[in-house]
Design brief:
Aminopeptidase, alpha+beta, Alpha-Beta Plaits, 472 residues, 4-stranded mixed sheet, binds zinc ion, 15 helices, 6-stranded mixed sheet
């Protein structure tokens, strides 16, 4: 494929400029509807999107299986000769945003300094607005051909395009995509899906990379009950459950051994090929089985959220989230509770994670600790040889010839785990070309969440071209 074959080049620059303006207004309207989860209250955003799609002449559907937990779905028809649909998947909810520390009101959707500011700008109302932008274009093209977009095939589409923007992703998605997958699977059933978080430029050592998310770590949350012996605080004792909990936390918090999964092996190899020799050598050392060598290379190459993400992508990780012990200062606690968040690589089972916890504690500590699984979500992997992956990579190269697309795993989980059950190959692809200085990963769930106007201007035609090429 060459750049001249880009479907977006058949659309006039004026039409793209209008589409960009509409995208920004769609995004701002969505940010102003606070869908903070908990409680979520996504129904208002779902109704807003429903109205927008109905005004375009489509027949959207809102599902509300639990009070105020609304999701919205819609179908654009292809002529059916190209196979199963492509799903545009997104979520409507956001994480809380205490206004402390923000330079803009998190729900005002200010436009300033080249950015749209607000909770959800990157996670992930920006992508919802881009998906709506693609739908607006397809509807306009149907109308220009004298077709009814609600019932006739969109000109040039051989597969259906499904849109689903769901509730509850930030709390596991069980009242959103999870419920729909169980009870209304036809709203999600597709050959493949485009979802959040990949396809975003990352500048590193003078090169621009576009990691496309093809895998996600799974999660295992445990409640640890640490048993001790009570007593009077005037006479300290080593069986103090809080003291034992401190030892438990120390042992579990040490970083585990690195293990390179096939996706990350390919990520580091592909990145090294495009980097100067010295940096490439450090990137290769990240894959070293010796934890000290690997950690030193990660520390030398990246900082902040990028360093933490790289470390997390190399191992099953353990993060301590809740610690409880004691009722009064002069009563030695006989019991403590520690809740931990384990994120597992593809290839690690829940049983293996639990065995790792026991091994880390060692027999003398493990005998005092009860381990109870709270929730488990398996890791997710989509095929690297899927034709959609090739379309995404080629389209990014056509729009940014200096950019390097490469596959990556996400350290966190998304709704991909729910649609994967339906056999949908799900890729994180919300294309943005960021300013090289923008620390995009820090914006996720962070203060001053924002997305660049120019990043979105780049992303919309890329997303449109991927949809057109894959469905055409
Ligand atoms: Zn998200």
């Amino acid at each position: 494929m060459t750049a001249s074959a880009l479907p977006s080049s058949a659309v006039s620059p004026e039409a793209w400029a209008r589409a960009h303006d509409e995208l920004i207004e769609d995004l701002r309207a969505l940010i102003r509807i606070p869908t903070v989860n908990p409680p979520g209250d996504e129904i208002r955003a779902a109704r807003h999107v429903e109205t927008l799609l109905a005004d375009l002449g489509l027949r959207p559907e809102v599902v509300e299986p639990f009070p105020d937990r609304g999701s919205v779905a819609c179908r654009l028809r292809g002529d059916g000769t190209g196979g199963a649909p492509l799903l545009l998947l997104s979520h409507l909810d956001v994480v809380p945003a205490p206004a402390d520390g923000w330079t803009h009101d998190p729900f005002a959707a200010d436009v300033a300094g080249g950015y749209v500011w607000g909770r959800g700008a990157v996670d992930m109302k920006g992508m919802v607005a881009m998906e709506l932008g693609v739908i607006r274009r397809l509807v306009a093209e149907a109308r220009a051909a004298g077709r009814d977009p609600a019932s006739d095939p969109i000109p040039g589409l051989r597969r259906d395009v499904l849109f689903a923007s769901t509730a509850d992703e930030e709390a596991g998605g069980f009242e959103g995509a999870g419920w729909i997958a169980d009870h209304r699977p036809q709203l999600l059933r597709a050959d493949a899906a485009l979802n959040e978080a990949g396809g975003v430029s990352m500048d590193f050592a003078g090169r621009r990379f576009y990691p496309i998310q093809v895998a996600e770590k799974g999660f295992a949350v445990y409640r640890l009950t640490v048993r001790g012996v009570c007593g009077h605080g005037s006479m300290p004792r080593e069986e103090n459950a809080a003291v034992r909990a401190a030892a438990v936390i120390t042992r579990l918090s040490a970083p585990g051994r690195p293990r390179l999964t096939p996706v990350m092996e390919r990520f580091f190899r592909a990145a090294a090929e495009h980097l100067p020799a010295e940096t490439a050598e450090l990137v290769r050392r990240i894959a070293d089985p010796d934890p000290a060598t690997s950690t030193a290379a990660v520390d030398a190459l990246c900082t902040g959220a990028y360093r933490r993400a790289t470390a997390a992508l190399l191992r099953d990780s353990i993060s301590v989230g809740v610690v409880n012990a004691g009722v009064k200062y002069n009563v030695i606690p006989g019991r403590a509770e520690v809740q931990i968040d384990c994120r597992v690589l593809p290839g690690t089972t829940e049983e293996q994670m639990r065995a790792e916890l026991v091994a880390r504690l060692g027999p003398e500590l493990a005998e005092h600790v009860g381990i109870e699984l709270v929730i488990f979500g398996a890791p997710v992997e989509a095929p690297l040889d899927h034709p959609l992956y090739a379309v995404m990579a080629a389209t990014l190269r056509d729009h940014d010839p200096e950019g390097v697309p490469l596959p990556i795993m996400a350290p966190f989980a998304t709704d991909a785990k729910h649609v994967e059950r339906l056999g949908v190959a799900t890729y994180g692809f919300s294309p943005l070309r960021n300013d090289p200085e923008e620390s995009w990963l820090e914006r996720f769930h962070g203060i001053d969440e924002r997305v660049g106007l120019e990043a979105l201007r780049f992303g919309l035609p890329v997303l449109y071209d991927v949809v057109r090429r894959y469905c055409g």
